[in-house]
Structures are given as C-alpha cells and as structure tokens.
Amino acid sequence: MSTLPSHSGVAAGDDQIAHAITGEPGQLKRTLKLRHLVFIGLAYMAPVAVFDLFGIVSDETDGHVPLAYLVVMVAVLFTAFSYSRMVRFFPIAGSAYTYAKEAINAHLGFLVGWAATLDYILLPMVNAILSGIYMGAIFPDVPFWIWVALTVAICTVLNLVGVKLSANLNMAFVVIQLIVAVVFVVLTVVNISNGANGAEFSVRPFFSEDIQLVSITAGAALLALSFLGFDAVSTLAEEAERPTRDIPRAIFIIVLVAGAFFLSVSYVMQVLFPDVSLLEDVVGASPEIAKYIGGAAFQAVFVGGYMMAVLACGITQQMSAARLLYAMGRDGALPKRLFGKVNPRTGVPVANVLLIALVALTATFVDLDQATAMANFGAFLAFTFVNLSVIFVFFRFLKRRSLGLWLGFVAVPAVGVAINVWLWLSLDPLSKVIGGIWLVAGLLFLVVKTRGFRAPAPDLTGPVNISMYE
C-alpha cells in the first residue's frame, strides 16, 4: 500500500493535500468554502422535508414524531463523529465507499459503495416523484411526466454548469425554505396559543405512558433519511478548499442545525394535531395543516416553498451521486472510461450527471412507496461501515493506544455501529428484500470483475494525516 505524505497540522496540510490530489488538469476543482458545504448539506436534506413524513411517522409513533427525531438525531451524531474522523484521513471523494475501501478491504469497500449507490442514485428519482405529486395537486390537468421531466432537466443543467453555481443557488433555496418554515411555525404557535383544535403545549410529543419502543424505532428509521445531507457533504472532499478542517465542521453544524429545526417544527405540529387520523389525508398532512393555520393563501406559499426544496434537493442529490460514481470509476471499481472522467473546464463528471438524470426520469413509472423502499437500505449499511472504518483505522494505522484514542476510535464508533444496526433491523421487510437483491447483484458483479477475487484490488492511497495522532 502506498501512503501519501503525512502532515503535522490539519489546516497547514490542506493546501498540500489539494495539490497532491487535484493539482492536475481534468480533476475536481477546489472551490467550496465552509458556508458552501453547510448550505449544500442543508439543501440536500431540504429543511421542509420535515413536512413530508410528518403524517406517516405521527401515525406510526402514535403522536411522538419529535421523540422519533430525537432518537435518530442521537444515532446520526455518533455516525457524524465517525465521518469527521474519516474525512481527516481520507479527504477524497467517495464517502463511505472510500472509507471502507481504504480502512478495511477494497472488495468490501466496493460492496459498501454499491449499497450506498442505490441510495444516492434513487434519491433524485424520489425527488422527481415528489415534484410531480405536489405540482399535480396545484395543476391537475398537467401530466405527471411533464413535472418529472422539468425537474430533472433543471437540476441536470445546473449541475453541468459547475458545482460552485449549484452551491450558491442552494444557499438561496435554503433561505427561502427556512423563511416559509419559520412562518409555518409562527402561525402554528399562534393557533396553539389561541386554543385551536383544543391544543396546549405539553411534553406528550416526547413522552407519554403509552409509548411503544418498537413504533418509535420504526419511526426513527424512516426519519433517518432526513439527515443524509451530512453524508452528501463528505462526497465533496475533493472540492472543498480546506477539506480536513471544513468538512468535519460542516458535518456537525449540519446535523445540529437540522436536528434543532426538525425537533422544533415537528413539536409544534404534533401539539396542534396530536392525532393525525383526524385529518383527511395522513400522507398529505402538512399541506392540510398549512391551510388550517393560514388559509388557502398560506397553503399556496407553503407549496411554493416546498418546490424550492425540490430544486435544491434535486441539484445536491444529483451532484453527490455523480461524484460517488466518479470515485468508484477513478479507482477501477466501475468502468473508468465511463465513470472516472471529469470535464477539464468545469470539473464536472458529465457522464455521471447524465446517467443519474436518466435514472431519475424513471420516476414516471415508479410510485413513491416503491422508490423510498428501495432507497432506505443503503443508508444504514453505509453508516455502519463508516463507524467500523474508524475502528479499523485505529488498529491498522495508529501506533498510540491512549485512553482518549480508545474512546474516540473504538468505543464511540462501536456505539454507532450498534445503533445503526438496530435501526436497520427496524426497516420494513420490502426495503430489506430489495436492498438485499441489489447487494447480491453487486457481489456477483464483483466476483465476475475480479475473476473470483483473484484479480488485484484497486490501488489504495492510505490515510493522509496519521502524524497528528502519533
């Protein structure tokens, strides 16, 4: 295994890392600052996504959506800690795929990447489906496929222009979403204060005597996808100006800000409507609540803000999926001629962006339940192996064995593994079946490509910043 030069300081080493990894023409370009990374992550999660699943999870948890969010936030913080560790060692594109490949085993890394690819590739399709559903509610005479095609086309064009333009647009989209969400919360609080629907502030959304642990876990497993933005940011390590400093910071900022937002919004919604079964449409609970608290005019504004989320999500999801495929193609895990190239002028992996767009267009043939079921599987598997990768880094690469390193590189990631496996087991059976089929397909592909694992694995680069722990 070859190893890149070690550096004694994170900030001082960033420029050298940038030159070592992306100093040649045709490579990804380092243009993203901390603020870009944070807004990309928040846009990927879409702050207004809290409204999408509220009705479903409230029904599942019997009125305890905030508690389910709290559970999954704790789980994500453990995994975020491991991501922040790994990005310091491997400030390169690929995220969970790269970490498992470099820290554990190249073949296993491919399978982790393959599983994560299902999640990344399908999320733009889920986003396109949501676009068709929401716009179809306002313009029922316009065919569903037109909204899907328009959403995919806009996101594809913006991604082909370049990552920095997309990042700046996402900053504007996130601000718009937050304004709409803040107005929603204010109107909800006013309604609660006025005793609408017999509501009053209480701790019941977080605790009650009739809590069912299985239901809370199942709800948390569904809500985990709301936090995928921090994972998406790690795929942009080769386009961050100071990856080893800014990406760990961005990861924790994103999780904490998003978590506080999700908890606050879901709490006031749950207080106002503790029993969503009283609504006409549980799945479409949020637009109905918007009309209840602010009338038809605010409902129109609410849907408009949601469409900003659709565009923001579509841009960032397509961006991240394309870069995951690029990392796998560059290392030879996928055909390099197709997946491992970037445009020398824009620094964009064009073929990958177009491929993701084609997959997203299949939204015209797939319903939302099928799409989300297929996308659920890879997230927890990837999170589990990111935590495992930290443990393997400790035993394979670090020479020191202090108590602090044992806690940070073994104990905390081990808890993260346990939590993610627990949540993975709470997924619905259909997600496991479809995800299992996808994983088996990846294994068969790997066996054929490596001639039964006899062919050498792609070259590994090794961790960059070992010296800071020695």
From TrEMBL:
Subcellular location: Membrane
One Pfam family matching this protein: AA_permease
Location (main, coarse): membrane
GO biological process assignments: transmembrane transport
Alphabetical list of InterPro entries matching this protein: AA-permease/SLC12A_dom, APC_superfamily
Domain Amino acid permease/ SLC12A: 36-394
Name listed for the protein in its UniProt record: APC family permease
Organism: Leucobacter ruminantium
High-level lineage: Bacteria, Bacillati, Actinomycetota, Actinomycetes, Micrococcales
